[in-house]
Write a sequence for this structure.
């Protein structure tokens, strides 16, 4: 079981989905919630490549200087995270996207886009967001969610892992497109063991 954003596996296949998966379980039980302080968010953003080391240091200093703002930021991050979950989980059952979560993501992504600048990087020119405020961090995840939505025609639907005590969202990029679990090594193995036990003892 993941205990923090430092050790949680990045199984989502996209930064917006790894962000959603900071609730360790959404099926069977809910939680634990791995977004408990600003540092959890900074660590995750760095791990999924949304910020570099220098930006992580700037944000860390900002959070220490403004603890109240850092606290509010975690609340904002959680409400954005739940909106991203509500928007993408419907792809698993092919339902229409709900309006409310879309509006939450749209508002923050719009702000992120307004602040982005075109930079030349090693990978060529890219829109990047300068980081000067703590709220920039939450907006970055909203922008990632909007990118995932825009690229719907280029990808398979987002899947929800059906593992006991899981419910993580992931992108299936496998060749056959029949991935059932966020991770074959954890949820996949649990399911196979359960199936084997049930076969061996149908009373179980
Ligand atoms: Zn899973």
């Amino acid at each position: 079981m993941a205990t923090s954003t430092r050790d949680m596996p990045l199984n989502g296949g996209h930064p917006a989905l790894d962000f959603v998966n900071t609730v360790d379980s959404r099926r069977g039980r809910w939680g634990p919630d791995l977004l408990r302080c600003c540092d959890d968010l900074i660590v995750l953003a760095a791990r999924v490549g949304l910020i570099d080391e220098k930006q992580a240091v700037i944000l860390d200093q900002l959070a220490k200087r403004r603890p109240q703002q850092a606290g509010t930021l975690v609340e904002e991050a959680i409400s954005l995270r739940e909106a991203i979950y509500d928007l993408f989980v419907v792809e698993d059952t092919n339902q229409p996207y709900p309006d409310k979560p879309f509006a939450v993501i749209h508002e923050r992504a719009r702000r992120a886009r307004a602040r982005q600048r075109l930079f030349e990087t090693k990978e060529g020119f890219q829109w990047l967001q300068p980081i000067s405020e703590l709220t920039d961090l939450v907006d970055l995840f909203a922008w990632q969610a909007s990118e995932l939505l825009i690229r719907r025609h280029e990808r398979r639907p987002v899947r929800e892992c059906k593992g006991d005590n899981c419910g993580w969202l992931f992108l299936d990029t496998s060749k056959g497109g029949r991935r059932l679990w966020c991770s074959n090594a954890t949820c996949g193995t649990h399911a196979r063991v359960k199936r084997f036990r049930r076969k061996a003892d149908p009373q179980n």
Notes: The CA atoms of residues 115 and 130 lie 7 Å apart.
